[in-house]
Amino acid sequence: MRLAESDIVWRSHWLRQALPDDPDLAPPLEEATQADICIVGGGYMGLWTAIRLKERNASLDVVIVERDICGGGPSGRNSGMVLSAWTKFSALAALRNAEDALKIIKASQDAISGIETFCRAEGIDGWFDRVGWIWGATCQAQAGAWDDALNKLAAHDYVPARRVSRDEIAAMAGTASHLAGAFDASSATVHPGFLVRGLRRAALKRGVRIYEKSPMTRFSRSGRLRVDTAKGSVCCGKIVLAMNAWSGAIPELAPAIFNISSDDAMSKPMPETLEKVGYRRAPLMIDSRVFVGGWSATRDGRLSVGVSGGIIGLGGIVDKRFHGPSPRVGEMRRVLRDGFPALANFDLETSWNGPIDRTVSGLPLFGTLPGNRDIAYGYGFSGNGTTMAYLGGQILSQILTGGESDLTDSALVRPVTRGFPPEPFRFVGAHFVRGAVRRRDDLEHAGRKPDGLTRWLAGLAPSGVTPSKANRRAAKG
User: Fold this and answer.
1) Are strands 225-229 and 216-219 parallel, antiparallel or unpaired?
2) Is beta strand 293-297 parallel, antiparallel or unpaired with respect to 284-286?
3) Residue 476: its pLDDT value, please?
4) Bridge partners for 229 per DSSP
5) What is the reported pLDDT for 315?
6) How far apart are CA 138 and CA 153, in angstroms?
7) Can you tell me the distance from the alpha carbon of 243 to that of 396, in angstroms, rounded to the nearest whole number?
8) C-alpha span between 411 and 413 (Å, rounded)
9) DSSP state letter for 129
10) Is the peptide bond before 424 cis (omega within 30 degrees of 0)?
11) Is 436 exposed, middle or buried (0-12, 13-18, 19+ CB in 10 A)?
């Protein structure tokens, strides 16, 4: 089967580039079948888990059921950032202790190299490019956002990044609009479309059975486990819920997350402009808003721009508002006017949005359902989901096959706890908090001090890449 052109043109730029040369579409599940393990979700998390399971035991019969196409969710729509987890040291440490946090951070940094090595071994040209990352401040109120993590990590003799001045940033990235920042040389960029399609091919090569256009309608929680789709079913020994934002539809998983969109845009090819301003091949850049803005240059001379903190989901529903052109291109241009004004008027090629499953701490969680240890989950990605999904594949494959490691014994493996109020209070409150965050950012960039109510509401925002009061509060329990 082949994906129809009409099912390609509406997708993210990344998938629109990747799919024409790789339009293979697995058949939908329209029969009753059996498997050792059924994975629900064919994004980074589900694919990495399937690959690791087959590497641990090639005889395992592993099935993936995917509601759309593999990579059709956030895995094929993200900004292509490959970051370690050092920015979340305080939240990680408070979940257990500093040693455990450092162990996770080092594993996430190893994951960057792991992705590069895997792609090279599999012949996946995912445009992996270790250009580094500048976490910067575009106004005085953002200055030093990185200090808490760097100072605490330095006390443990771990230095993941170095502080850089405005002049150093200008020399590296061509903009003098960042007052200061931190530079992490280990970070990289990838092409999400080429990467996720490459992972799909790697899973198929290992004998994983994939059914696309097969949304799960229900799954059993006891007895012989079964995953049902509209026209078929999989009877299996174990289930993996790798559903990302769609996890909000699972009652056992919903309390830990709320869904909010991340929005991205891609410029038309502009290699000469990028070369002229000093950003043809330079570090990816992120500001220090809670709902961050970021940008990077692509291999083919385009500018990729993204902002978080968009559309808010109600009750875990991922509706049509999360699929289509982004309504926030103007906001992306404002982010660039603050951080790289020479690029703010880029010629737009396309834009898109997609859902993110945000936890209050900004940390993912993995484990098994309380009522059945044969049903595993992995979700809650925001900010550095590419590396965390890679680690998640290791964690879940080990949990499901009885293996143990430092990661399965880490704070990433934990029960689901309520992170947000129940609906409809979550939906209403999230709008107030989002509005306050945006007001605070606007006022701070204008050199004005936000009022007390705005500061209080904005402080309730959960963390993405950068820390927030909610992040630190959640970390303290």
Assistant:
1) antiparallel
2) antiparallel
3) 42
4) 216
5) 84
6) 24
7) 14
8) 5
9) B
10) yes
11) buried
Residue 371: what pLDDT? 87
Number of residues written out for the chain = 477
Q: Which residues lie below 8 Å from residue 444, measured CB to CB, with a gap of 6+? A: 139, 140, 141, 142, 450
- Give the count of beta carbons closer than 10 Å to the beta carbon of residue 202: 21
What's residue 464's pLDDT? 57
Q: Alpha-carbon distance 120 to 281, whole Å?
A: 21
pLDDT score for 404:
86
SS3 294: strand
Beta bridge partners of 167: none
pLDDT of the residue at 316? 79
Residue 209: both structure tokens together:
């059975």
Please give the pLDDT value at position 128: 98
Give the Cα separation of 461 and 189 in Å (integer). Answer: 27
Measure the CA–CA gap between 363 and 338, rounded to whole angstroms: 28
Please give the DSSP secondary-structure letter assigned to residue 406: T
The string of pLDDT tens digits covering residues 174-196 is 999 999 999 999 999 999 999 99
DSSP state of 212: -
Q: In this structure, which amino acid lies at residue 341?
A: P
Give the span between the Cα atoms of 136 and 239, in whole angstroms. 41
| pLDDT(469) > 50 | no
Side-chain half-sphere of 295: how many Cα atoms within 13 Å? 32
In the predicted model, what is the mean pLDDT of residues 438-457? 91
- Between 49 and 361, the more confident residue is 49
Q: What DSSP state is assigned to residue 368?
A: E
Angle at 35 between CA 33 and CA 36, to 5 degrees: 165
Structure tokens given for 460: 């309730």
Give the DSSP letter string of 132-176: -EEEEESSGGGTTTTHHHHHHHHTTT----EEEEHHHHHHHHS-S
In this structure, how many other beta carbons lie within 10 angstroms of the beta carbon of residue 34?
A: 14
Residue 6: exposed, middle, or buried by beta-carbon count in 10 A (0-12, 13-18, 19+)? Answer: exposed
What confidence category does residue 290 fall into, taking pLDDT thresholds of 50, 70 and 90?
A: confident
452: burial class by Cβ within 10 Å (0-12, 13-18, 19+)?
exposed
Q: Which two tokens stand for residue 218?
A: 């229900």
Q: Which of 377, 323, 463 is nearest to 45 (CA)?
A: 377
CA distances from 167 to 27, 143, 193, 294 (A): 54, 15, 35, 19
| Joined tokens for residue 306 | 């993204």
pLDDT score of 467 = 53
Q: What are phi and psi of 290, to 5 degrees?
A: -65, -50
Please write the tens of the pLDDT for every residue from 317-370. 899 999 999 999 999 999 999 999 999 999 999 999 999 999 988 899 999 999
Arithmetic mean of pLDDT over the chain: 94
What is the Cα 402 distance to its own chain's centre? 27
- For 413, which DSSP code? B
